[in-house]
Amino acid sequence: MRIVIAGAHGKIGRHLGAMLVERGDAVLGLIRNPDHADDLRADGVQPQLADLERLDAAALADLLSDVDAAVFAAGAGPGSGASRKDTVDRAASALLADACERAGVRRFLQVSSMGTTRPNPPDVDPVFGAYLDAKRAAEQDLRPRSLDWTILRPGRLTDDPPTGRVALAASVDRAEVTRADVAAVLLALLDEPAAARRALELVNGEIPIPEAVRAALR
Known about the structure:
The chain is of the alpha/beta class and 218 residues long. It is 39% helix and 23% strand. The strands form two sheets. A nine-stranded mixed β-sheet has the order 3-2-1-4-5-6-10-8-11, with helices on both faces.
């Protein structure tokens, strides 16, 4: 397969790109900063400059002509304000979905967040609230599309070593999950037709990832 990753230099994107390359897939990594290109090449990922806050859907679709599936793993990141939560976490996801529809790329995985299925708490930090609002809106944008989408909602992300064991279901108790385990679950979901049009929550748990994916998709 040939997979495009938006946010390919992010921590989840780097893990996923390396995993895809290791199993023999070709990976196109969308990046905004040209200084990140060498890191992707070292991972075996083909870098492609594409500022998702500036491109239009037609131009992005031209880059996806030979792509089989797309993963949206981009994010405005720590230190960004509420406005960039909207332009990256919401609008860039919608842009990639638009481009996939134009290019005929049906499979689409979106990295979202736990907390999008309920209203924000009244005492939520305003910037984190804007992040949840953006993720919630990105999910709502994706649902009516004809894409074979899957929404993955991780719990609080950590950089700990992967455990290979998770809890994965439509709803799970809030907890942490390593970014490496998120990438491994994305990899497993990518090949599962039964994952299409499903939204799943993810945290670290006790069940090996292949078994957890099979159980979640029954």
